[in-house]
C-alpha cells in the first residue's frame, strides 16, 4: 500500500515540475499573440484613417488638403490614437489626393517593445 502511495505522490510531483517548465513558454506564446494582434489592430485603424482622409479630400469642393487632414485625424481620435501626424500630399496635376498617416507604434504588454515596429505608416490615394 505504501509503494502505490509513493508512486502517486511522485507522479504529482513530476506533473508539477513539468507544468513549471512549460508555463513560461506558454505564457510567452500567448502574450506574443496578443501583442501582434494589437499591432495589426492599430495598423488597420491607421490604414482606414488614410483611406477615409483620401476619400473625404477627393470629394471636397474646396481645400481638399484641409478636409483630408481633418477627416483622417477625426478617424484616429475616435479610434483612440492621439499621437498621430497626418501629412497630405496633392500631386501637381490635382487629379488625385494622397494621404499619408504616420503614427508611433505601441506595445500592449511592454514585454515585446523591441520586437514590435516603432512606426506604422499607411498611404491611400484617390482620384478627384
Structural class: alpha+beta
The total number of structural domains is 1
List segments where confidence is low: pLDDT < 50 over at least 5 consecutive residues: none
Mean pLDDT: 84
Could you give the order of the helices and strands?
Answer: HHEEE
Shape call: rod-shaped
Query: Hey, roughly how much beta strand do the residues contain?
Result: 15-25%
Please report the total strand number as a whole number: 3
Question: Helix proportion of residues, in percent?
Answer: 55-70%
Characterize the largest beta sheet: strand count, sense, and whether it forms a barrel. Answer: 3 strands, antiparallel
Q: Major sheet: order of its strands? A: 1-2-3
Query: What is the count of DSSP helices, taking H or I runs of 4+ residues?
Result: 2
Rg on CA atoms, Å: 25 Å
Measure the end-to-end span. Answer: 87 Å
Descriptors:
128 residues, alpha+beta, 2 helices, 3 strands, 58% helix, rod-shaped
Can you offer a commentary on this structure?
This protein is an alpha+beta fold and 128 residues long. The chain has one domain (38-127). The protein is built from two helices and three strands. A three-stranded antiparallel sheet has the order 1-2-3, with helices on one face. The protein is rod-shaped, with a radius of gyration of 25 Å. The termini are far apart. 22% of the residues are buried.
Write the SSE topology.
Elements: H1 2-59, H2 64-79, E1 84-89, E2 96-104, E3 119-127
Antiparallel strand pairs: 1-2, 2-3
Helix pairs in contact: 1-2
